[in-house]
From TrEMBL, chain A:
Name used for this protein in its record: NADH-ubiquinone/plastoquinone oxidoreductase chain 3
InterPro entries (UniProt xref): NADH_UbQ/plastoQ_OxRdtase_su3, NDAH_ubi_oxred_su3_sf
Family assignment from sequence similarity: Belongs to the complex I subunit 3 family.
Subcellular location: Membrane
Transmembrane segments: 6-28, 59-80, 92-116
GO MF entries: NADH dehydrogenase (ubiquinone) activity
PANTHER family the record matches: NADH-UBIQUINONE OXIDOREDUCTASE CHAIN 3
Keyword Transport: yes
GO CC list: NADH dehydrogenase complex
UniProt entry tagged with the keyword Phosphoprotein: no
From TrEMBL, chain B:
Cellular compartments annotated: Membrane
GO biological process: aerobic respiration
Record's keyword annotation contains Transmembrane helix: yes
GO MF annotation terms: NADH dehydrogenase activity
Domain of life: Archaea
This protein's name: NAD(P)H-quinone oxidoreductase subunit 1
Annotated membrane topology: Multi-pass membrane protein
Length: 134, 364
């Protein structure tokens, strides 16, 4: 039995359940259109300005960092899977298995330290930093 | 432990095969296989839906009420349990108000993605008593990958609602998810170092085959569940998981006091139900992952047929813990949240990974 057939079946079920609920709701719910009912919610005030607001650049910096580390986890997984077999193999020493990966991650952590120093993962500036800029 | 664990997948019977053999539809070739897979998927889907049905409208209220010394729902049925039926009818029959600035296809698709992606993860979770839909070789990576799809749904919901609160809530949700995704995956990886496999059935089997120690006097053999073997990783994983499902102390994306309801502000009626359902499914998926890789999966005292009972007890324990924290711990601020993720948990999870690797290397 192919595993991916079952996973595909669950994907279809996972799609049918929300669609089924939407269909049931469509049959049950009323529709009473009123003026201003569909206005954007802003705590009861009349909405001001556009909704595509400018947002903090930090979201972008964090996403970039994520990209780097996400690719790195992809490279870590095969290593983790073969690790136990490699350890049990007499011809390979521990340093040979662990060393390269430690070096690889260390390079990335240097990158993280650099980003950290430059404030990429810092959301707000501390009072002393604000003071220093004056 | 001087020998590598032997592959064990031969003795695990998956749910579609079980259904195929029991009902005899396995004889119809590919069509029978497909039908069995669909019946299996439907069973797993209904089971998880039933859990969230109990947890969302009823258990959550009761637990929060118990923490804050109130009674909560008690009118319909014993202990107010029939409020589940009343609430589902009430929520589904609400008028669906779609904001005028909404980006239509994306606005409608987001709830489906949030609810559907959470359900997809349960395919590879061994739930005991033969309820195990699929057991691919990449099980653990698959479940992390599928759980990550929800971030796309959250971003879509936040952007397409055409509301400032939703936009900021969606951005926060994604920033939080990606900040804690790496610690979650890297900590999960430290389990793979012990198990030597990504296959869920093997990870469970390795935990239950080895005896950690035996309590003297009693005949209780304590199995080497990874929560006991590596408690540091277990705690890290729990913390990262709470952030990933967006629960206290990391419930920033919703932050009712500042962002109304975050990305779900503009969702009403069935769309709200789906978003809410997706969140609860994610809490249970997190619980299922924790159960599988740290708490020995469906194993427990008694015959193996009781597996599903132990599995449900374990995932409900994780759910109870999330509700406990919800009542007991204040929310952290957004800047703290990001800094805890990138400066704290990320570094600790790498330290954990290499410490585990070194320990496994030395004791072998």
């Amino acid at each position: 039995m192919n595993d991916w057939i079952a996973i595909g079946a669950l994907a279809v079920v996972g799609l049918l359940i929300p669609l089924g609920m939407m269909a049931v709701s469509y049959l049950l719910r009323p529709s009473v259109p009123e003026t201003n009912k569909r206005a954007t919610y802003e705590s009861g005030e009349v909405p001001t300005g556009g909704t595509r607001v400018r947002f903090n650049i930090q979201y972008y910096m964090v996403a970039l960092l994520f990209l780097v580390f996400d690719i790195e986890t992809v490279l870590l997984f095969p290593w983790a899977v073969v690790y136990l077999d490699a350890i049990n193999h007499d011809a390979i020493s521990l340093a040979e298995i662990l060393g390269p990966m430690v070096a690889f991650v260390a390079i990335l952590l240097v990158g993280l330290a650099w980003a950290w120093r430059n404030g990429a993962v810092q959301w707000a500036r501390t009072p002393s930093q604000v003071e220093a800029d004056r | 432990m001087n020998t590598a664990p032997t592959p064990l997948q031969s003795d695990t019977v998956l749910l579609p095969e079980l259904i195929g053999d029991l009902t005899g539809i396995a004889e119809f070739g590919v069509a029978g296989e497909l039908l069995a897979a669909f019946i299996g998927a439907f069973i797993v889907g209904s089971l998880m839906l039933a859990m969230t049905g109990i947890a969302g409208p009823w258990a959550k209220r009761k637990i929060t009420a118990a923490f804050t010394d109130r009674i909560a729902v008690n009118h319909l049925g014993p202990g107010g349990i029939l409020v589940i039926v009343a609430d589902s009818v009430r929520l589904l029959s609400k008028e669906n108000i779609i904001p005028e600035d909404a980006d239509r296809p994306a606005y409608d698709l987001a709830p489906i993605i949030i609810a559907g992606s959470a359900l997809l993860g349960f395919a590879v979770i061994p739930m005991g008593s033969g309820i195990h839909l699929a057991d691919p070789e990449v099980g653990l990576v698959y479940v992390f990958a599928v759980a990550g799809i929800a971030s796309v749904g959250l971003m879509m919901a936040g952007y397409a609602s055409g509301n400032k609160y939703s936009m900021l809530g969606g951005l926060r949700a994604v920033a939080q998810n990606i900040a804690y995704e790496i610690p979650l995956v890297v900590t999960g990886m430290s389990v793979v170092l012990f198990a030597g496999s990504l296959r869920m059935s093997e990870i469970v089997a390795v935990q239950n085959e080895t005896t950690l120690f035996t309590i003297p006097g009693l005949e209780w053999a304590i199995p080497a569940w990874f929560a006991l073997v590596n408690p540091f990783a277990f705690v890290l994983f729990l913390i990262a998981n709470f952030a990933e499902v967006g629960r206290n102390p990391f419930d920033m994306p919703e932050a009712p006091a500042e962002l109304v309801a975050g990305y779900q502000t503009e969702y009403s009626s069935v769309y709200f139900v789906l978003v809410y359902l997706g969140e609860f499914l994610h809490i249970f998926l997190g619980g299922a992952i924790i159960t599988t890789i740290f708490l020995g999966g469906p194993a427990g005292p008694g015959p193996a047929e009781l597996g599903i009972v132990w599995f449900i007890i374990k995932i409900w324990s994780v759910f109870l813990l999330t509700q406990w924290l919800r009542s007991a711990i204040p929310r952290v601020r957004i800047d703290h949240l990001i800094e805890i993720g990138w400066k704290g948990l990320l570094v600790l999870s790498f330290a954990n990974l290499f410490l585990t690797a070194a320990i496994v290397g030395v004791i072998q």
